[in-house]
């Protein structure tokens, strides 16, 4: 396949690539309210992620990276995927980080730097592509397992990190720490995939800084205040149920992405469940005030750098030395 064909296939495939039981409502909901000095963020934009077929056998709800939410620096793309069949064979990346978090089922992966494994439900793969890497993703389809579902988040890298050596972190569900803002018996918990929540820190250390939190409520009308670094871009993607943000009274429903305000005096966001099965992802990262030029899986700062990336990939150099010789074992 020629370069144009490879990149076309990549653009279709690579973009695509948890459940908890509700408990009965109690007469009074516990509340974890902010201190007097805490100021909550608000919703500035709301986007519905509509399910769309992607490639062969995948259904994707894309919000960040869609026409409705193209620019949300440093976030490039957020896909909520459901893979009924098919997979994502060997393909390249440069200049960004890809984060794959499984909600149900599992997915095998392998890359040209020698990393290989299986992401199980509740586990995460955090891959910094840097100057160049090849990798493959193979969702596991088996009669005794649920169909693979999860989220893939793409995060831009600052110019100073775009040409670093690739790096990789994988955490199984047992290694992602959990925060209990109101105690272990209370109806809210937070999986701290990266960043910090209520005194619990993740072992993931992203280049450029990025927080990624998985909130689950099992009771309606529960309020929690999540601290966030001042000025960072932040979004919420609602997986299930409905959620009230800040001082608003109207709940936001599942499959919506909510962009939060970034005023300098805001210290975090007040979160309130509006149903007994509220579940959502919260992402936050330092914005990158640099130009972005993206060509499929390549994300650089100028057109000239993209052209250089294409030459490097075609000629197998500057990070792509194994681009035309490496073959993943999970596909070959």
From TrEMBL:
Cofactor(s) the protein needs: Fe cation
Boundaries of every Pirin C-terminal domain copy: 221-319
Coiled-coil region: none
SUPFAM superfamilies referenced in this protein's UniProt entry, alphabetically: RmlC-like cupins
Binding site for Fe cation: 91, 93, 135, 137
Keywords for the protein's UniProt record, in alphabetical order: Iron, Metal-binding, Signal
GO terms for MF: metal ion binding
Residues making up the signal peptide according to the UniProt record: 1-18
Residue ranges of every copy of the Pirin N-terminal domain listed in the record: 60-155
Family: Belongs to the pirin family.
Native source species: Mycena rosella (Pink bonnet)
Domain of life per record: Eukaryota
Cofactor binding comment, as recorded: Binds 1 Fe cation per subunit.
Descriptive protein name: RmlC-like cupin domain-containing protein
InterPro entries: Pirin, Pirin_C_dom, Pirin_N_dom, RmlC-like_jellyroll, RmlC_Cupin_sf
